[in-house]
Structure formats: C-alpha cells, structure tokens
Design a protein that fits this description.
By secondary structure, the chain is mainly beta. A ten-stranded mixed β-sheet has the order 1-2-5-4-3-12-7-8-9-11, covered by helices on one side. A two-stranded parallel ribbon has the order 6-10. It contains three helices and twelve strands. The N terminus is likely disordered. Strand 3 and strand 4 form a beta hairpin. The termini are far apart. The chain is 12% helix and 30% strand.
C-alpha cells in the first residue's frame, strides 16, 4: 500500500522500470548480456518520468549533458534511459529523424575511425562484440544519413560517460525496448 502513496506524494519521482528477465531474449540470434544496474548511478536505470522535454508524444529527446534519452509517451510522461554520448569534440546536436532501423547490424567504421585506430577492419559482423550492439536507429537529416546512431553497445561500462565518436549508446536491453516502441520517421532531438 505504500507505493501508491509514494507515487502520489512525489509527482517528480521516477517510477522504477522492471527489467525483463534473461529468458525474454532467448529468441535473439546473439547473447544479450544483462547488466548489473546496481553498478551504475540509479539515474541510468530506465524509469517512467514526467515529460519535461516540451516535445510531442513519439519524439526521442537526447539530453547529452545529463546523459539521458527520453522517449516521450504523452504530454505528461516519458520513458528515461541512461546513455553514453560523444567524447569531447565528437558530439552532435540537432534535430533528425529515424531514417532506418536494424536488428543486430554490422558496423562499418568511418575512414576517420580507421585513421585513428590502425588495423580496424572495414566491417565488424553482427554479434555480441559488435560496437552497435543489438539494435541501431540511424539518424537522418533532410533525407541524408548523418552517420550518427542511437544503438546498443558491447561496452556497457561506458553508459553515463562521454565515450563514443558521437553516437548515442544504450544498454542492449534498453535499445531493444526503445526499438520496439519507435518507427522510422520518428523525430529525434539531440540537445
């Protein structure tokens, strides 16, 4: 009985999100390694929160400073996820749309990435060690690929940090949940 009182007494409090059990991912073609969320700041856990973004339902809003991604559910509520963002000098901000979506995509490093990291292959096959993880949402602007993505990660310890080459990283189980709730054409605002 205490839970309803807590929810009513603090409308700014985040409602905890119950993580899916490992069996939820049994049909995935590659292992989805569940993360011990206790090792991360509690704000990196998925949570239903009040919609303070000002964006319409269906919009994805990325707050790079707070390292949170919000999927706006209604004018009053949003789902918040912890993320990793671009390292200093690699961040991107702006408005885009989800141009396409992929499950367990291969990764093709850019020429800049290959220059920075000699020996990096031209392609990394889908799988548990692929840097894009379990899902990828490809961000487009004016009908063209920006080469920025919202994607899973093979490096979950980076969530809550500035670690990427500009993409938005999520825990694999979180990006799977997000993927199932959005469609191509969804608006994405990166602040």
């Amino acid at each position: 009985m205490a839970l309803p009182l807590v929810v009513l007494s603090g409308c700014q409090a985040a409602l905890p999100y119950q993580a899916a059990p490992a069996s939820t991912y049994a049909s995935e073609p590659f292992p989805v390694r569940l993360v011990n969320r206790d090792r991360f700041d509690p704000s990196m856990r998925p949570a239903h929160v009040p919609n303070t973004t000002g964006a319409a339902a269906g919009t994805i809003v990325v707050d790079t400073s707070a390292k949170h991604l919000y999927l706006v559910e209604s004018k009053d509520s949003a789902m918040r996820y912890g993320i990793a963002v671009g390292k200093s000098g690699y961040g991107w901000k702006g408005t885009a749309t989800v141009g396409r979506m992929a499950k367990w995509p291969p990764w093709y490093p850019t020429d800049d990435m290959k220059q920075t990291t000699p020996g990096l292959p031209d392609r990394i096959a889908p799988g548990a060690q692929n840097p894009l993880g379990a899902r990828a949402l490809y961000l487009y602007k004016d009908g063209r690929d920006t080469y920025y993505r919202i994607h899973g990660t093979s490096e979950p310890w980076t969530i809550g940090t500035e670690a990427s080459s500009g993409c938005i990283r999520m825990f694999n189980e979180d990006v799977i949940a997000l993927y199932d709730k959005v469609s191509p054409g969804a608006k994405v605002i990166v602040r």
